[in-house]
Design goal:
single chain; alpha+beta; seven-stranded mixed β-sheet; seven-stranded antiparallel β-sheet; 16 strands; 25% helix; 25% strand; elongated
Length: 312
């Protein structure tokens, strides 16, 4: 089989497959420059594949000349895909005898698309899960082969939920492949009328609007903790919030106003309620508990956190 994946979510599936099946190749996204040095960094899947001594392919596009021929030469019986990051063209979808099987981080048909984990947290969902799906040419529209649901914790973040769903996906993937080999799969069509869409995140999705309710902002903070991070401005410097608690506010205060400060806490008014910040990062500084931030920054009641212009 061939495995296609890129981020950390896909790694447990690759590792599980390697233990039970012959993985003849791993396809992942090209190395990307990161940080101030712009040094190319491997994807999490590439790092895992190299540790398993598996051959790695990194096409810029699956439609690149010769890519389908390269994959065909590997003679896969199935292609397993998990958060790969590119749309598979028809000639690859139809290449293996058992087709292409996708590990998707939602209970389809809800949250089709690129960012199901982030969007379900933003929306305040209490339940999500993983769907193993037979891929077709639509966007996460193929028949359902297996599902597993989990409940979200009150403080679930994109980081914690990704880790949980990655393990769930790896666990339910193997029985699906066994059934495919045995010819006993029972695909179930999706109910298109119940579908929702989880569009790809943009940097501006992390910009905080303090006129929104505190509960909604707190959910956003948890949903974008990996990227792009919940961000506003403090004295014209980018200020990121990584953790906060919803508390009672001062309705007469303007949203974004600092309404309470102690040695260990900082509370900001929102459209409804307020947020007691717990973990923050000021531009040029490390991420830290708010008590450590306050020890080195003179924050006073009446100061304002302001929104970033979404058109910048």
């Amino acid at each position: 089989m061939i495995f296609m994946g890129t981020p950390a979510f896909a790694v447990p599936s690759l590792q599980a497959l390697h233990k039970e099946h012959e993985v003849v190749g791993v396809v992942t996204q090209p190395d990307k420059p990161r940080g101030r040095s712009k040094k190319p960094v491997f994807s999490e899947v590439k790092t895992a594949a190299l540790a398993l001594n598996l051959p790695v392919y990194q096409p810029r596009r699956l439609k690149d000349a010769g890519m389908s021929g390269t994959l065909a030469a590997l003679k896969p019986d199935v292609i397993v895909v998990a958060a790969f990051g590119q749309i598979l063209p028809r000639d690859i979808l139809t290449l293996p005898p058992h087709g292409c099987i996708n590990v998707h981080a939602s209970l389809l048909p809800r949250y089709r698309g690129a960012a199901p984990i982030n969007r379900c947290i933003m929306d305040g969902e209490t339940e999500t899960g993983v769907t193993i799906m037979q891929m077709d040419e639509g966007l996460d529209t193929g028949d359902i082969l297996a599902t597993a649901a989990i409940y979200l914790d009150d403080k679930e973040t994109a980081t914690t939920l990704t880790d949980k769903l990655a393990l769930v996906g790896a666990e339910i993937l193997l029985p699906v492949l066994a059934a495919a080999e045995a010819g006993t799969l029972t695909p179930e069509p999706q109910d298109d009328e119940k579908h929702t869409y989880a569009k790809m995140l943009k940097k501006s999705d992390g910009f905080i609007r303090f006129d929104e309710p505190a509960e909604r902002i707190e959910a956003l903070i948890r949903a974008v903790d990996i990227w792009p991070n919940a961000t506003c401005l403090l004295d014209d410097r980018q200020f990121k919030i990584f953790a906060a608690d919803v508390v009672d506010g001062h309705p007469e205060a303007r949203p974004g106003t600092v309404i309470a400060v102690t040695r260990r806490s900082m509370t900001v008014q929102c459209g409804e309620g307020a947020l007691a910040l717990r973990e923050v990062q000021l531009a040029g500084k490390k991420r830290m508990p708010v008590a450590s931030f306050l020890a080195g920054n003179p924050i006073t009641v009446g100061m304002h956190l302001t929104e970033i212009d979404r058109h910048e």
